[in-house]
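Think of the structure tokens as a kind of shorthand, similar to the way a musician reads notation: each symbol stands for something richer, in this case the local conformation of the backbone. In the example below we present two proteins back to back. Begin with the first one, reading the sequence and then the tokens, and try to describe in your own words what changes along the chain.
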Amino acid sequence: MAGVNKVILLGNLGADPEMRYTAGGTAVCKFRMATTEKFTDKDGNRQERTDWHRVVAWRKLAEICGQYLAKGKQVYIEGKIRNDTWEKDGVKQYSYEIVADNMVMLGGPGGRGQEREPEPEPEPPFGRPEGGAPEDDIPF
């Protein structure tokens, strides 16, 4: 039976991304992002829990992340979870990271939900246009 390893995150970057290249020239971008869950506990008090995730992007997606993402920017990430284990001083250590397959920038250019103000629509000209015929001379 095949397995599924799919992660979807929506959160904010905790720091600017770190862009690097492998010895073979492959782009790698790493960043941390926070996801926050708000809930009401059993006593009726509003609570908030923030989890931090390590994210890594490779190749073209890494270059895009390195160029456009910044601390505080809100992003949507799809990817898979990878774990690594090793021993240090006889104690087994664990590490988890999200390998990004897709990234969507959200929240406008300033991050954290700050949308850009829409450009005002141009005002229609008053009176008749230069060189134009008066309204009474329109043939329809």
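Once you have a description of the first chain, move to the second and do the same.
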Amino acid sequence: MKMHTTSLTVRFNEVDSYNVAWHGHYIAWMEVGRNDLAMQFGLDAQQLTEEGYLGPVVGLEVKYLHPACFKDQITVCTNLRPCDAAVLVFYNEIRSSDGRTLATGRTTHALTDLQGVLQLRTPPVIAERILRMTEWLDRL
């Protein structure tokens, strides 16, 4: 499966006195990439809520490989892999302008109703949107 890309520039407020991006910003960049992709298919947080569901983060993994620095042009590559459980699992790679992988990560979002009741099956409206997204990613 291919990956959707989102381009960003490392801002001054995202680096420390060593000119290296603080590790927490990688998670925020993953969120930007995830929302950029999810929004196109009706799966961002607001769109899920409008359908009567929430997708809270229940798992987060990041592996840091190389630092990003002030003014670096980075690309957040994102995809979603279908899962049998009622979860959304997004995978990310953060790459430098020369293609070097700076970090990899994954977020897992459980699907609940608006009262927080865990869904045992992916709701049909969400499953259809996941299918459209994965078919689109396969065509990239």
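Compare your description with these statements about the second chain. Strands lie at 4-9, 53-54, 57-64, 73-81, 87-96, 101-110, 112-113.
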